[in-house]
Amino acid sequence: xxxxxxxxxxxxxxxxxxxxxxxxxxxxxxxxxxxxxxxxxxxxxxxxxxxxxxxxxxxxxxxxxxxxxxxxxxxxxxxxxxxxxxxxxxxxxxxxxxxxxxxxxxxxxxxxxxxxxxxxxxxxxxxxxxxxxxxxxxxx
Length: 140
Prior knowledge:
Distance between the termini: 40 Å
Mean pLDDT: 87
Oligomer: single chain
């Protein structure tokens, strides 16, 4: 009985360590793409150029689900998952990794890149990116 309890608690701990908490951010054009951010993925980012900076950098994950009418869907991509670095002090962000997935959750393509400060672009007002950056920066 003790062994069963220990196994169950280990299973619970390992599943909660990888938990995801997706928050709806909005959509583009009212229907083409729905954006969701994993609020549990928001972490302080201290790598590369941000390692010794006094500015507040974070990283986060976002999923974008494509509508059947979108060009991405027509090309076989059902959704993508993107990892961002955000400068909360300057309200700017950059993509550091992206993966496209098909209808059966199969990985179609992925890419990662190292960035420096020049890759960070200002967040545009009134966009889902603005919502994402504001929520993420307030959460840490």
